Amino acid sequence: MRFVGLLLIGISLVGCATAAPDGDAVRVRWQVASLKDVNEICNDGIPPANRKRAVGCYRRSFDECTIYTADLKEDPDLHDTLGHELRHCFVGRFHR
Q: Percent of the chain having pLDDT more than 90?
């Protein structure tokens, strides 16, 4: 049942336009990849000594935000990861 809920959320995110903090519309995409690939994508451009294990990340360009996550088999907390990265799409960097 949990998987069905996540699937519906994912389907609703693909191609969805939403308002960003600056008031402009942003298209949100969700890309599911292997955990290994997610780590490579999320750590791209980061020096090896500073890399961290990642189960998800986001990449925002002008009018599009892409969320990269592993699938439910590799990330049992996928719903939390997806929500966390979606918040980044809306508000940008919020970690202190």
A: 50
